[in-house]
Amino acid sequence: MSQKTINRRSILKSAAALPLSAIAAPAIIGTAKAAPMKMRLSTSLPDDAKYSNGRVTYDNLVKHLKADGLSEQIEIAFFPSNQLGQEIDVINSVKLGVIDMMVSGSSISANLVPLVGAFDLGYMFDSFPQQTKAFDAGAAKPVEEALLKGANIRIISWAYNFGSRSVLARKEVKEPADLAGVKIRTLPNPIITECLRLMGAAATPLAFGEIYTALQAGVLDGVEHDPPTILASKFYETSKFYALTQHNFSPLAVYFSEATFKRMEPGLRDKFLAVAQKAAADTRTHGLAVEKEALGVLKEKGVSINECNKAEFRKRVAVQTENFIKQHPDSKGFIENIKSTTA
Questions:
Q1: Containing domain of residue 95, as a range?
Q2: Confidence band (pLDDT; 50, 70, 90) for 10?
Q3: How confident is the model at residue 32, as a pLDDT?
Q4: Does any domain span residue 213?
Q5: Mean pLDDT score of the chain, rounded to an integer?
Q6: Helices 332-340 and 141-151 sit at what angle, rounded to 10 degrees?
Q7: pTM
Q8: pLDDT tens for residues 70-119?
Q9: What is the 3-state secondary structure (H, E, C) of the chain?
Q10: Which of 31, 79, 113, 128 has the most beta carbons within 10 angstroms of its beta carbon?
Q11: d(Cα 157, Cα 137) in Å, to the nearest integer?
Q12: What percent of the chain has pLDDT over 90?
């Protein structure tokens, strides 16, 4: 049996026959994965997976990021219960690009761009399905453009707050006269405050994080909000009468910093926007379901729920829309589109 001798000359000869790239290039053990893009999402509501629209929106975003194979490219950190600050501070941080996303109603952004306040006018919408139909037909577009131009914030999806806003108080409310002198918390937003004032209440603007203690201390006599939020935030522990005024079918927005938007690679950006739309659809479906459930749970917890004279409340508040159009003529077109839309 012959034995092949391997020496320096034979190694050099063999190497000479190899392509230059095979000699020069080091062996590639593996390709390092790019770090995911990290974003922060803020909400004022508690960390409640059923009744908090912020948590539900977050869960749906994460679900669709995973389903679409984007969970290793985008990572969202969730901050409920005002952990990053009160809403007015957070919306300004989104404007500056300090916080990437915020889940909230349209009301808070009206402090930056007044045109957004049209969606908070008393009895602007008749129902949530009507709202979606109007938005799908383009009624939200002028507001989205104004917010982007005026505040550097994109609305990447619309959903619903979990139920229409009605009045929770320490006393039964059926007519506007029943609200006389009653201190009802409103969002720190002039549109919402004016709506409740026209309805007859002593409207009292206050940050969300301060509501419970104010109700507990008697600084407030009540609050206007949707049933799941009242349940999740335990406001029912302080006030036991819920009047179904349904004065506001408040749209829920996912606010997205334009600075963050511009940092995203275009291909990833388009995929993320598609995920946001899918998440919003799921959040809308969930919101409609839990409103009824929350009303039932509130009854079990001793809250008296009553119908009221909505026609009279609507009549008293109608002037608000008229005045808004006079102050913001550019709102007339899309407001008329909303009013002419039927569910």
A1: 37-161+250-291
A2: very low
A3: 64
A4: no
A5: 91
A6: 150
A7: 0.83
A8: 999 999 999 999 999 999 999 999 999 999 999 999 888 988 999 999 99
A9: CCCCCCCHHHHHHHHHCCCHHHHHCCCCCCCCCCCCEEEEEECCCCCCCCCCHHHHHHHHHHHHHHHCCCCCCEEEEEECCCCCCCHHHHHHHHHHCCCCEEEEECHHHHHCCHHHHHHHCCCCCCCHHHHHHHHHCCCCHHHHHHHHHHHCEEEEEEEECCCCEEEEECCCCCCHHHHCCCEEEECCCHHHHHHHHHHCCEEEECCHHHHHHHHHHCCCCEEEECHHHHHHCCHHHCCCEEEEEEEECCEEEEEEEHHHHHHCCHHHHHHHHHHHHHHHHHHHHHHHHHHHHHHHHHHHCCCEEECCCHHHHHHHHHHHHHHHHHHCHHHHHHHHHHHHCCC
A10: 128
A11: 14
A12: 83
Cβ proximity of 43 and 79 under 8 Å: yes
Rounded CA separation 225/295 (Å): 12
In this predicted structure, the answer to whether residue 200 has a pLDDT above a threshold of 90 is yes
CATH code at position 125:
3.40.190.170
311 located within any domain: no
